[in-house]
Design goal:
binds zinc ion, 7 helices, globular, about 55% helix, about 190 residues, 4 strands, single chain
Length: about 190
């Protein structure tokens, strides 16, 4: 069994919140480029500064209503707005309009797949889509997100794969979640 991104469904609820915060600041700042590329770069930058809130998308469960800024508790709300200002400033000072782009994605998700496959094989686990979605959401909520919009993201993945400290963090988080979900005995 080899798990790929097609084998589970998850969603980071902060993606909608981040896009909303960026839109809000751009609406107030007409002198900042608000093209789709800059918007996505700002959103990715912001998402890396705030904790991820991944949820599994389960087969028999209705989709959550999208999370909106106003629902966040005060401290997180303020952090999102402050970091959104920073994101707009960073991208505005260094806009990147090249066409060689990848769709925005969280590289941490790609990095988790290899240790997860390793553990599932070692433990002889055959899991269904819902279980894999719960595992991936749980693990990604424990790790720092690394959203990227460029193909350089893949260079980041390779560097992190060589870092044994990072690697250990992935293994610990995966085992933690497998025990929490009672897929492995604790
Ligand atoms: Zn732009």
């Amino acid at each position: 069994m080899k798990i790929t991104q097609d084998d589970y469904s998850i969603h980071n609820r902060m993606e909608g919140v981040a896009a909303e915060a960026v839109d809000r600041l751009l609406a107030e700042n007409s002198n900042v480029c608000g093209c789709a590329m800059c918007r996505e770069d700002m959103t990715a930058y912001l998402l890396n500064q705030i904790p991820a809130v991944y949820v599994p998308i389960l087969a028999d469960q209705a989709q959550n209503e999208p999370l909106v800024l106003e629902q966040l508790e005060n401290q997180l709300f303020r952090k999102v707005i402050v970091e959104a200002y920073r994101a707009v400033h960073v991208v505005r000072s260094n806009p990147r309009h090249e066409h060689d782009r990848a769709a925005m994605q969280n590289c941490t998700e790609l990095m988790v797949l290899s240790p997860l496959n390793d553990i599932l094989n070692k433990e002889g686990l055959q899991l269904g889509r819902d279980e894999l979605s719960q595992i991936m959401a749980g693990v990604l909520n424990m790790l720092e997100p690394h959203y990227t919009t460029s193909n350089k993201g893949h260079a980041y993945v390779r560097t992190a794969e060589l870092d044994s400290g990072e690697w250990a963090k992935f293994y610990c988080s995966i085992y933690d979640v497998l025990k929490r979900l009672a897929i492995l005995p604790s």
